[in-house]
Design goal:
With 189 residues, the protein is mainly α. The chain has one domain (1-180): hpI Integrase, Chain A (Orthogonal Bundle). 39% of the residues lie in helices and 8% in strands. It has 6 helices and 3 strands. It has helices at 2-11, 77-87, 108-121, 133-144, 149-156, 171-188, and strands at residues 36-39, 47-52, 64-69. A 3-stranded antiparallel β-sheet has the order 1-2-3, with helices on one face. The N and C termini lie far apart (59 Å). GO terms for molecular function: DNA binding. InterPro entries: DNA_brk_join_enz (IPR011010), Integrase-like_cat_sf (IPR013762), Phage_Integrase-like_Recomb (IPR052925).
C-alpha cells in the first residue's frame, strides 16, 4: 500500500489531504478506490486517472482529473497502483483508496511516520522529510528535467507562481556555480 501511496503522491504532485484521511472517511471528500480508473483496463494498464474530489485550491468543489502514465521501471506508479489494487480485492470500492488491513485509513501522520522510518533505515536524516516532500520532490524533479513552467504549474495545480517555492536547487547545480562564475569572469578579463 505504501509504495502505491508514495508513487501516487510523487507523480501526481499531490497534497497530502488529496490522498489521506485526517478526519472520518467521507466518500464525498476523500479519495476512494472508485477514484482510480485504468486505461485500457487494470490488467493491461498503461495509465490511470485519479479523480480528486476536493482540494485546497478548489473552493467550488469541482474536483479535477489527473492522468498518471507508466514509466516502465521500478518506480512505475501504474504498476504500483495496479499491484496494490489487485492484491487487495476484498476492500470495497467505496472505502478509502489507501487503508491498512485493520480497516484504518492512511492518515498524514501515519504516512509521515512510515516515510521517516524508511528513510532512517536508509541512513538518511528523516527529520528533513514529511508528507509534503513528495510534492516538493515532484516539482524539483520537473524543474530539473527542464519541463516548462506552465506544465509544472498544471501538474501541481498551482494557479500562481508559488510553485517556485517548492523547487529545490540540487546540490550539484549549486556546486557547479563557482566554476561557471570563474569561467565567465576569465572570458571577460
Amino acid at each position: 500500500m505504501l509504495w502505491a501511496a508514495f508513487t501516487l503522491a510523487f507523480f501526481g504532485f499531490l497534497r497530502c489531504s488529496e490522498f489521506t484521511c485526517n478526519s472520518p472517511f467521507d466518500p464525498e471528500y476523500h479519495l476512494s478506490r472508485t477514484g482510480i480508473i485504468f486505461y485500457p483496463n487494470i490488467l493491461n494498464a498503461e495509465q490511470f486517472d485519479v479523480i480528486i474530489k476536493r482540494s485546497k485550491t478548489d473552493p467550488f468543489r469541482r474536483g479535477c482529473r489527473l492522468t498518471i502514465g507508466s514509466s516502465l521501471n521500478e518506480f512505475c506508479p501504474v504498476r504500483a497502483m495496479k499491484n496494490y489494487l489487485l492484491q487487495t480485492p476484498s476492500i470495497p470500492e467505496s472505502r478509502p483508496l489507501f487503508q491498512f488491513e485493520s480497516g484504518a485509513p492512511l492518515t498524514r501522520a501515519t504516512l509521515t511516520s512510515h516515510l521517516r522510518s524508511l528513510l532512517q533505515q536508509q541512513g538518511l536524516d528523516e527529520t528533513l522529510y514529511a508528507s509534503h516532500s513528495f510534492r516538493i520532490g515532484a516539482a524539483t524533479a520537473a524543474g530539473s528535467a527542464g519541463l516548462p513552467t506552465w506544465l509544472i504549474k498544471t501538474l501541481g495545480r498551482w494557479s500562481s507562481d508559488c510553485y517556485e517555492r517548492y523547487i529545490r536547487t540540487p546540490r550539484d547545480v549549486l556546486v557547479s556555480v563557482t566554476s561557471k562564475l570563474i569561467a565567465n569572469t576569465n572570458q571577460k578579463v
